[in-house]
Design goal:
The complex is a heterodimer of chains A (about 110) and B (about 110).
Chain A lengths: L4 E3 L2 E4 L5 E6 L6 E7 L6 E7 L2 E5 L7 E4 L6 E5 L8 E8 L7 E2 L3 E5 L1
Parallel strand pairs in A: 2-11
Antiparallel strand pairs in A: 1-3, 3-8, 4-5, 4-9, 5-6, 7-8, 9-10, 9-11
Chain B lengths: L4 E3 L2 E5 L4 E6 L6 E7 L6 E6 L5 E4 L2 E5 L5 E6 L8 E8 L8 E2 L3 E6 L1
Parallel strand pairs in B: 2-11
Antiparallel strand pairs in B: 1-3, 3-8, 4-5, 4-9, 6-7, 7-8, 9-10, 9-11
The chains are: A mainly beta (about 110), B mainly beta (about 110).
């Protein structure tokens, strides 16, 4: 069964460093998302991406964040200068259409020291 | 800001009991999805409800979408220890982008 994959599963970085989180969405899906979940809190929407551009972003998604679909399969989230408060689980998700079922990857645990 | 309120936040029951989890909002959602999440893993989709009043069944789990599409419930019949986990509701607020708004989750513990 097709699934969303994410790498790495765990990333440890120093404050101020850049990180890139990688995702491979389900192959025929057209809409891509990043969410985050701080430990003990609810899953929060960060950004949606369609047709090679950002279609919506939340207040959390400031200038330190960027997304890219560098080729036909990968979808990346970059944090330019990480802060302690960026420590969280980051989930990638994809769906075929806006009203369709949304499938999540297993997540990347980001730890900023 | 659209919010989804889930209740209860924690539920501890004995095997064989029935339970209901509620997901409520003052806003209308075009669809609502229920997920189950294990510690350290991503949410796994259980069901999507789209039509007001819709009822879907998945073995011992029954999902209902409110007539006004502002609320939903998850009912588990004869709970088993394998049902233990975190249950999340997530609504699509009718944006063109299909983003999801999540509830805070219900942690269910079913004791043998």
């Amino acid at each position: 069964e097709p699934e969303v994959t994410q790498t790495p599963s765990h990333q440890v970085t120093q404050m101020g460093q850049e990180v890139i989180l990688r995702c491979v969405p389900i192959s025929n899906h057209l809409y891509f998302y990043w969410y985050r979940q701080i430990l003990g809190q609810k899953v929060e929407f960060l950004v949606s991406f369609y047709n090679n551009e950002i279609s919506e972003k939340s207040e959390i998604f400031d200038d330190q964040f960027s997304v890219e679909r560098p080729d036909g399969s990968n979808f990346t989230l970059k944090i330019r200068s990480t802060k302690l408060e960026d420590s969280a689980m980051y989930f990638c998700a994809s769906r075929y259409s806006p009203g369709g079922e949304q499938f999540f990857g297993p997540g990347t645990r980001l730890t900023v020291l | 800001t659209q919010l989804l309120e889930q209740s209860p936040q924690f539920l501890s029951i004995q095997e064989g009991e029935n339970l209901t989890v509620y997901c409520n909002s003052s806003s209308v959602f075009s669809s609502l999805q229920w997920y189950r999440q294990e510690p350290g893993e991503g949410p796994v989709l259980l069901v999507t409800v789209v039509t007001g009043g819709e009822v879907k069944k998945l073995k011992r789990l029954t999902f209902q979408f409110g007539d006004a599409r502002k609320d939903s419930s998850l009912h588990i019949t004869a709970a088993q220890p394998g049902d233990t986990g975190l249950y999340l509701c997530a609504g699509d607020p009718s944006s063109n982008t299909g983003k999801l708004i999540f509830g805070q989750g219900t942690t269910l513990q079913v004791k043998p």
